[in-house]
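Sequence in, structure out.
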Amino acid sequence: MVGIVITGHGHFPGGILSAVELVAGKQDRVIGVDFEAGQSSGTLKEALTAAVGGMEGEEVLILSDLAGGTPFNMAAEVKQELKGKHIRLLAGTNMAMVVEAVFSRMGVGLDTLAEMAAEAGAKGVVDFDRLGDDEEKPQFEDGI
């Protein structure tokens, strides 16, 4: 099973992980690494290295909030420097992406999972006003 590390600014990682667990239940081998105000990039990198390095198995998917931000940049350094792990790094993380990743990671390898998560994340961005006529719009009675 592919391990998942979620990183991002503030409490984004912990918050999205909490939301995903409401939908999908408590998840093994999924870790959130927050980048809090006042924290140095070096400290974040150490936390990411510990999270990825301590993850059971060699395949790890890192999901970051924003391409080019400090969490993404430090995760990219960890990906390049940490030997013995096959790591994929995606940015633009949203709830749809994380839910897809946690539900699909049992039966697929890391590269396929990264593709599936990226596709789900892109499809998860919906403009209600562009869905078409009322017959195509989803019903929001029960939710997920």
